[in-house]
Input
Amino acid sequence: MTGRLAGYVTWLGDRRTVLLGLVALVAVGLVPSLSRGADWLGSWKMALDAGTFSLTLIGPVAAGIACATYVRLATSGVEPLLRTGPRPWWPWLRPALSIWGLAAVAMSAITLGVTTSAALAGAVPYYDTLWVLVPALCVLAAQVAVGVLLGGLGRRVWLAPVAAAATFSLGVLGAIGAMPEIFRTGGLGVTYAGETYDATTLGLQTGATLGVAAGLLLLSNRTVVGRTAISRVVISLLVLLGAVCYVVLGNGIHDRYRAVSDPELVCRGDAVRVCMARETTRPLDDLVERMERQASALRELGLELPPRYVDYLAGSDDERQGGVMLLVEETLASTVSDETAARVLTTPAQCAAYRSDIAPPEASFDTRRLLARWLLFRAGLLQPRVDDFDREWLESGLEEQRSWVTTTYEQLRSCDLDALRLPAGV
Amino acid sequence: MSSRLAVARAWGVPRTLLLALLLAGMAQFVATSYVGMPSFEAEIPALDLVPPAAALVLAAPLVDQTPDLTLRAGRPLGQVLLLRYVATHTAGAIVVASLALSGWSFERSLVVVLFLAGSAVAAAGLGAWHWVPMMAGSYVWLLRSQHLDDLDDADVPVAAAAAALVAAGVIYVCAGLYRTHRTRCPRGG
Output
């Protein structure tokens, strides 16, 4: 290890200990990142979100390590020596910087791993959103500072797990609304289709966490950290900035993501054209293939498909195009079910009623469900069971069904949802 | 101060019992509360956070902060280690009682015994860093808890808790004896 690097990690232990610490931090960080499985494979921005979410545990563990380290530093008897130097705050803060760096490497390694995996799975990378690592690293600084404070003032080894638990609790307090969510990094569970990170909210979080970090580091050893005029000025400015950001974040609604004004779409298929948000195109090819197979039944009846089906998550609301209404897990998966493809085919228009606060008429759900079952039956993908309510109608033959299917499909295309009726006898 | 009290203080027993009382009091205070956690699908009962907290803050007596004194202990070392283990579980019993009084079934409250048994095994292997794997394990447990279909699935059979208590105690004591043996005889002699 080079001399300079060795100086940074002296208070953490030898090279083997530092390496083991890094492995431990990566291992614990993977737990929250993988807490929802690997659904982030379907969205690169979501993978980035999962990578920074690793701080949920890396941060508290880093705080615990910082606490243990500063207990050793504070009780080692070197403190009087520190005061004699021209910059006494530097040797005091250097272990904190080392721990922050070690935890930052762990978080970055996880983020690199999950985002690369998502890219390899087909998700389009958005490198211009990598700036969200900056607020995450500031949150990590504040988390480490909690450990520095408890270790520097408490000076008891048993405080290390208490520091870890306290840091984790700060995240919980933010989650339940007892304080602004300044310790949160990721874990939103949204696909980010047609959305991106909100720079204002995350900027305010950056300011607030820097202020918290500066304030806690000063309190950890006021005589050493605040000994020079320059350190006092810098810390005062950061604390003031942090206080302003904290107050602003505590008032009003501050979402961590916002809709993109003109979301990009990726379209596939000729016979059936389907478009999804560029962020989430993983199941697109499979969806097109399954829809094309089932759409032939509609063409046989002379029905015209919409020019294209567009992902609702992409913010489109043009009634002339079909709607792709997928659940979050369907949007992120590599394949969809035939039932999902049939459901999309029964949405030939993006009717306003589908996203209105007032639910569409009950009959519209029943008719679309029956139409979807008819599509599956015609494609040979559904075999009605003896006790199915629609078995008799499904097996009654095309001539018997033609009138209802044609009328229903046209009503769905024209968004005349109130007129929808089930066929007689169903 | 009697020598026994001095030893108990050196092990952090009074402080741990105080923390146990504090945790038990908090359990009563938050008994009906739910907390929303990032990435969790639904809010979780605040009481679910108590067993992980117990594993983190009540395991301090398991860590030997004065190994030099331990080497000169008058009592057999196995007995010393066992007393440390008992002290931790005594503090845990206070939390178990509080959880059982706050609406959890007694069997469900016994999960605290499992957590402290986990801390003992972690302390046997990692010493003062026992809380690191316990943090990760606690998070996994919280994730699992939110997916339980039936409350009965959260119950810990008394026999299972007793088995974990004994097994973790044996591991902790044996690991402590082995470590001391290696300290006294560094070359295996």
Observations:
- Chain A has two domains: 3-259, 265-419.
- Chain A has 17 helices and seven strands.
